[in-house]
Each structure stands twice: as structure tokens, then as C-alpha cells.
Write a structure and sequence with these properties.
By secondary structure, this protein is an alpha/beta fold. Helices cover 32% and strands 16% of the residues.
Length: 298
């Protein structure tokens, strides 16, 4: 069974017309190194022509085989929905923002570049492995500058169970959005039956190759309809994915969590240890893919 992860690294977009997080260069690189411990999968990373040679050198120096991690350049200014995006985008606000809408929508449109020679395809955010989501017990602090990104949760057992739990559906992860509000939704009129109870996240999703055409078309059709509807804002990919889930639940298998923080050290001040017993942190899903019985020792 062949598995492919698709991701991207664009670490210099903050302050540009595209928008993006600042100071993420080594975060993305060291986190991706941690994800690459899923050695039974291959990875494709989209990036810019400004960064590709530096990325190749970095991962070559870390002894990552070229056949396990391939890089491909893509100009985000030429993304599939640039025309619709640019008609709505507030450039001044985008320059100050930390999210790039072109990357978000490309998580699905990059699918059309695939030749479908793998059995399973997953999108995974390059920066998913770090101490803001994963508690110290799963981090390797002996790795020097990599210590806040290097986690033993990403491995071939994780990969095996990710596929097993996907089954014959399209796997997504969803955060509670009622008790722990995270995001507004797109307009209720787009919902068959309106609900804001789950916010689907864009950090990890996918399934068998036979599911992807339908999912990519579904996502892109919603993008066109919503962005063509005289709106004044650009919905994140997660808002559109949440709409997809609510309107087409039968297509998905979902792993749910309550809160992002792994422990009180990275949570807002005043949160007690009991909070993390009562509510499910994101990293518990990573434990589930490792078949680790949950404990309450952070």
C-alpha cells in the first residue's frame, strides 16, 4: 500500500500581498523532519522558487532521501482562484495577517496535479509537530535546536492506524466550536441544516485516492459559489470544510477534540491541571493514532 503526504513550506510571506506567519522558517523545517519519521510514506512539498534550493540543502544535510521528500515550486500568485480572491482581498489587512488564503485553497486544488499512483493521499501541515500542540513527554529535548519540534508521535504505527481509521471515508479532524468557540462559519444559507458545533481543521485530512476527486470538486464548487456571492471577506478553507462536513456527513470519518493546548504551560493563564482531564486536547488524537491509552500526565 502506497501513501503520499502533500504539504508546503512558504516561510517568507508575512508582510506581502499573500499574507502568512512570520518567523516560521525553522519551525516548518524541523517540524517536517519530525513528520518524516513516517518512513513508509512519501512526501511532496510545494514551495517557492526563492526557497527551494535552501530547502533541498537543509533536508539533504539531514539525510532525507530525495525519493522520500520531493519539492515542487508553485507561484501562489497563480493559484486556481486568484481572480476571485483578488476581487475580494483587502491587501492592507492581508499584509498584517498570518494566514495565506491561496495556500489554504491550494490544499485541495494541488490534488489535480497528482497521477493517482498512490493508494492513499493526505494533506498535512508542515508545522504540525511542535510544543504548542504536543506536551513535553512526547518531545525529544536531546535534539538541541529541534527540541521543541521533534516528537515520537509521528511514526509508521501512526501511519498504519491513520489509514485504518480512515477506512472507506475521507478523514478529517474537528474541534468543538460551541463550548470552546474557535471560528465563525460561512453564511447559514449555505447549510442544508445550519450548525456551528464542529470546526474542521485544515492541518491533516485525506483518504483513498478514489475519494479525492469528489472532495476536491465539492470544496472548489463551494469556493466558487461563496466567493461569487458578493461577499466582503474570504472564508478560510476550514470554514468551507466545516460546511462540507455538515452538509455531507456520510462522506466523512471525523476525529474530534475540544482544546488546542497540551498543558497549562502553553494555555492562557489561570487554567488548572484539572482542565486537561476534563477536556480533550488536540494531541490526544495523535495518541489515538498510536493506540496509546490516554493518561493525564502531561
Amino acid at each position: 500500500m502506497r501513501v503520499k503526504f502533500i504539504t508546503c513550506i512558504y516561510s517568507d510571506l508575512y508582510g506581502t500581498d499573500l499574507g502568512g506567519r512570520s518567523s516560521r522558517n525553522y519551525h516548518y523545517r524541523y517540524s517536517l523532519l519530525s513528520l518524516l519519521k513516517m518512513t513508509n510514506a512519501d512526501f511532496l512539498c510545494y514551495t517557492s522558487d526563492r526557497e527551494i534550493e535552501s530547502l533541498k540543502m537543509f533536508f539533504h544535510m539531514k539525510n532525507i532521501p530525495e525519493n522520500k521528500l520531493k519539492f515542487e515550486t508553485f507561484d501562489l500568485n497563480n493559484s486556481k482562484f486568484s481572480g476571485l480572491i483578488n476581487a475580494i482581498k483587502n491587501v492592507d489587512e492581508t499584509k498584517k495577517g498570518d494566514r495565506c488564503i491561496e495556500i489554504q485553497y491550494s490544499k485541495f486544488s494541488w490534488w489535480w496535479n497528482e497521477d493517482k499512483t498512490y493508494d492513499y493521499y493526505y494533506w498535512i501541515d508542515a508545522g504540525l509537530s511542535y510544543n504548542g500542540l504536543i506536551p513535553p513527554k512526547y518531545l525529544n529535548f536531546s535534539h538541541g535546536e529541534r527540541r521543541t519540534y521533534e516528537s515520537n508521535l509521528f511514526n509508521n504505527l501512526f501511519l498504519e492506524n491513520l489509514i485504518a481509521d480512515t477506512d472507506d471515508k475521507f478523514l478529517i479532524l474537528g474541534k468543538d466550536n460551541q463550548r470552546f468557540f474557535w471560528s465563525q462559519t460561512v453564511a447559514p444559507k449555505w447549510y442544508t441544516t445550519y450548525s456551528n458545533h464542529i470546526h474542521v481543521i485544515g492541518g491533516l485530512f485525506g483518504g483513498h485516492k478514489d475519494k479525492w476527486d469528489n472532495m476536491a470538486n465539492l470544496f472548489e464548487n463551494y469556493v466558487v459559489k461563496i466567493l461569487s456571492d458578493s461577499i466582503s471577506f474570504l472564508p478560510h478553507e476550514e470554514q468551507i470544510m466545516s460546511l462540507m462536513y455538515c452538509n455531507h456527513m456520510d462522506l466523512f470519518v471525523i476525529k474530534q477534540f475540544d482544546i488546542w493546548w497540551p498543558n497549562k504551560n502553553v494555555a492562557p493563564q489561570g487554567i488548572s491541571d484539572d482542565y486537561f482531564v476534563k477536556y480533550k486536547s488536540f494531541y490526544r488524537i495523535l495518541e489515538e493514532f498510536n493506540r496509546i491509552e490516554p493518561s493525564h500526565d502531561p
